[in-house]
């Protein structure tokens, strides 16, 4: 019915003015279903689809409309705009696919490099969900020495420190000395400097990535190379070394920590 088509189209125009393009498209389809020769429903529907970057739907409106009104300049212009947009979307999709392919190849090369050096990776576990991890670095230098990012976690305070580039010949203690530099102000969370490299109060642990509740202690003088080659050590696929640091100087927390370890 022509009257019903006009009513649907008028409502579609109102929906379009409110930028409710999905509702506009539905009303235009209803108008066409009730009266297929209602030209305005085709053009309004095509424009709404184009506003949503739904080029296939816009072209469908144009194709059906032009089959009835082959000389409609408005529909021909919308059709050209839809084709241009489709070309642009295809170009962006191709560029995105190219970047994703390059990133995938780079990631594969990174994994191959780690495995070549005897590093174990647990691919079942997702990357650690911490903001610092976004800047994780891993590469081999000209001397074929691996460089790692290290995340120190302090369970007592829920704080972390992130070192982005540590050569594997460095010991964990060397890395901690960069964090707990006595010439720098004390961390706001440790004003009494209970965490210090001056004595032997620091204990370090890594998390067993097979049994996530298990913490494994290791000597603080261990180099990153020695740590990452241990048979009981494996990394998540982000290749971020995560080390938990505890201080014996925090007697109460240290006692609770040891009790917790004994429970497992």
TrEMBL record:
<comment type="similarity">
    <text>Belongs to the TTC4 family.</text>
</comment>
<keyword id="KW-0677">Repeat</keyword>
<dbReference type="GO" id="GO:0051879">
    <property type="term" value="F:Hsp90 protein binding"/>
</dbReference>
<dbReference type="GO" id="GO:0006457">
    <property type="term" value="P:protein folding"/>
</dbReference>
<dbReference type="InterPro" id="IPR044059">
    <property type="entry name" value="Csn1/TTC4_wheel"/>
</dbReference>
<dbReference type="GO" id="GO:0005634">
    <property type="term" value="C:nucleus"/>
</dbReference>
<feature type="domain" description="Cns1/TTC4 wheel">
    <location>
        <begin position="141"/>
        <end position="255"/>
    </location>
</feature>
<dbReference type="GO" id="GO:0030544">
    <property type="term" value="F:Hsp70 protein binding"/>
</dbReference>
<protein>
    <recommendedName>
        <fullName>Cns1/TTC4 wheel domain-containing protein</fullName>
    </recommendedName>
</protein>
<dbReference type="Pfam" id="PF18972">
    <property type="entry name" value="Wheel"/>
</dbReference>
<dbReference type="InterPro" id="IPR019734">
    <property type="entry name" value="TPR_rpt"/>
</dbReference>
<dbReference type="InterPro" id="IPR011990">
    <property type="entry name" value="TPR-like_helical_dom_sf"/>
</dbReference>
<keyword id="KW-0802">TPR repeat</keyword>
<dbReference type="GO" id="GO:0005829">
    <property type="term" value="C:cytosol"/>
</dbReference>
């Amino acid at each position: 019915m022509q009257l019903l088509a006009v009513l649907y189209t008028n409502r579609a125009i109102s929906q379009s003015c409110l930028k409710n393009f999905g509702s506009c498209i539905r009303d235009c389809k209803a108008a066409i279903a009730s009266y297929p020769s209602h030209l305005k429903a085709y053009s309004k529907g095509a424009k709404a689809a184009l506003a949503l970057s739904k080029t296939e739907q816009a072209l469908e409106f144009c194709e059906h409309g032009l089959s009835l009104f082959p000389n409609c300049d408005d529909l021909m212009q919308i059709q050209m705009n839809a084709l241009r947009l489709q070309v642009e979307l295809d170009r962006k999709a191709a560029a995105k696919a190219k970047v994703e392919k390059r990133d995938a190849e780079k990631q594969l090369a990174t994994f191959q490099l780690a495995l070549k050096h005897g590093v174990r990776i647990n691919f079942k576990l997702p990357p650690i969900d911490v903001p610092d991890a976004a800047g994780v670095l891993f590469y081999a230098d000209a001397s074929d020495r691996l460089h790692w990012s290290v995340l120190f976690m302090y369970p007592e305070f829920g704080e972390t420190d992130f070192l982005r580039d540590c050569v594997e010949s460095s010991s964990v203690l060397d890395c901690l000395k960069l964090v707990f530099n006595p010439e720098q102000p004390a961390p706001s969370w440790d004003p009494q400097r209970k965490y210090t490299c001056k004595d032997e109060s620091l204990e370090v642990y890594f998390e067993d990535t097979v049994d996530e509740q298990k913490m494994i202690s290791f000597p603080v003088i261990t180099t990153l190379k020695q740590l990452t080659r241990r048979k009981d050590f494996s990394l998540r696929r982000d290749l971020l070394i995560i080390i938990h640091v505890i201080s014996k100087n925090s007697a109460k927390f240290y006692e609770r920590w040891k009790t917790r370890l004994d429970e497992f």
